[in-house]
Amino acid sequence: MNKTTMTFANGYLLSARSIAIHFHPARPVRPARTVAINRSLAAVRYASVSSTSPSKRKMADKLNQEERTTELKPLLESGWKIQSNRDAIEKEFQFKNFNEAFGFMTRVALLAEKMDHHPEWFNVYNKLQVTLSSHDVNGLSKRDIKMASFMDKNYN
């Protein structure tokens, strides 16, 4: 091969034939077909495979007065507070750094997904403010007690 049939491209020395193969393929690439999706059918399929579909989820019961007295007491002693403006409990956690805070949130998030019960939380650097309440009963439930107890046990 002489210099006239060689071309330098992308840092490699390529022959004219090699360039033709790379840039002019024998079978041109066809554009992808557009497919119309029936959105309602897709939604039905998604709901049927979702582990948290409403038909399979157990509804929480609001804590009665006796349960509030017995089950909230240990949480209130560990720093949880009852919110004044609604039936919810809150607590602020403080960690050494952001990585510890994020690790704690990740552990809680895994339980929250499993329970299908998600906390309201606000995180800045090493501080985490958590509020727990069950929206389906518009107040505190055993889910909140379980979540708060889990947080207390996993807090370093």
TrEMBL record:
The keyword Transmembrane helix does not apply. Keywords: Lyase. It catalyses: (4aS,6R)-4a-hydroxy-L-erythro-5,6,7,8-tetrahydrobiopterin = (6R)-L-erythro-6,7-dihydrobiopterin + H2O. InterPro entries: PCD_sf, Pterin_deHydtase. One of its GO terms (molecular function) is 4-alpha-hydroxytetrahydrobiopterin dehydratase activity. Coiled coil: none annotated. The keyword Acyltransferase does not apply. Its EC number is 4.2.1.96. CDD domains: PCD_DCoH_subfamily_b (cd00914). GO terms for biological process: tetrahydrobiopterin biosynthetic process. Belongs to the pterin-4-alpha-carbinolamine dehydratase family. This is 4a-hydroxytetrahydrobiopterin dehydratase.
